[in-house]
Amino acid sequence: MPDSLPPLLLVGCGKMGGAMLDGWLKEGLAPSFIVDRHRESVPAPHHLVRSPDDVPADFRPGMIILATKPQKVDSVLPAVAPFAVHAPVISVLAGRTVRSLTDALAAHQPPGSPAPIVIRTMPNTPCAIGQGMTVCYAPPAATPVQRRLCTRLLRAVGEVAWVEHEDQIDIVTAISGSGPAYVFLLAELLEQLGVADGLPPELARQIARQTVAGSGALMQQSGIDAATLRRNVTSPNGTTQKALEVLMADGAWPATLAAALKAGAKRARELSGPQPVS
């Protein structure tokens, strides 16, 4: 049985933070502080407070997790900063670079304090049910032990991978961060087109949702690459081939998706601002 998790300071316990906390509790979490204005309770021996200012100054977390809404994080950083002198920080905030958070935390720490260690992550919405994909970037100052703990914590909500350069988070955002929306759009369109062709709405929804969900489960459980699975469904001169010929005509669908990913990655760079070469 793995060792229990160290005490944590979780700042923000909404859908993402709450899903992570549920996973950590199952693993065995040392007494920790959860900061959230809306949650009603946490199980003993953990502590629920409404503000980081309410966390005892002598609390020593093994890791700090910033899971607030991005637009609200600046209001909590001054109170979080003293704890970041002793513990690394995991950020699950969209659009905030390692440099921006490191500088903001350092501005509220005592002179001469070591630079805060901030690990930037990009989770996606299936993390809410433990089926997510989170991609992480750690600056060179992060230790292997800190990276391993980060991986263990984030595996509570799905799979975890790492990139070597922070600017790679932009395309990760466009693929996995935004990716669920593309899949939901496919299900939405399949449902709408089924209704337009005469299916009862309830049946069209059931077919569309289960087709998308079942296909994803098959791909995950089989381990077979997506191209092979697609070919396995596509009988020569059959219905699937005819439909795919329309979608792939002149590279239309691949080109559209490529353009969409480039637009998403570009917007991610705009939101994050300039990034240092890592």
Automatic annotation (TrEMBL):
Involved pathway(s): Amino-acid biosynthesis; L-proline biosynthesis; L-proline from L-glutamate 5-semialdehyde: step 1/1
Domain Pyrroline-5-carboxylate reductase catalytic N-terminal residues, every copy: 10-95
Name of protein: Pyrroline-5-carboxylate reductase
Keywords: Amino-acid biosynthesis, Cytoplasm, NADP, Oxidoreductase, Proline biosynthesis
Keyword field contains Oxidoreductase: yes
SUPFAM superfamilies: 6-phosphogluconate dehydrogenase C-terminal domain-like, NAD(P)-binding Rossmann-fold domains
Enzyme class (EC, first level): oxidoreductase
Signal peptide positions on this chain: none
UniProt GO cellular component terms: cytoplasm
Catalytic activity: L-proline + NAD(+) = (S)-1-pyrroline-5-carboxylate + NADH + 2 H(+); L-proline + NADP(+) = (S)-1-pyrroline-5-carboxylate + NADPH + 2 H(+)
Location of the protein in the cell: Cytoplasm
GO biological process terms held by the UniProt record: L-proline biosynthetic process
Biological role stated in the UniProt entry: Catalyzes the reduction of 1-pyrroline-5-carboxylate (PCA) to L-proline.
Entry EC number(s): 1.5.1.2
Family the entry assigns: Belongs to the pyrroline-5-carboxylate reductase family.
Annotated NADP(+) binding sites: A67, T68, K69, P70
Gene Ontology molecular function: any one: pyrroline-5-carboxylate reductase activity
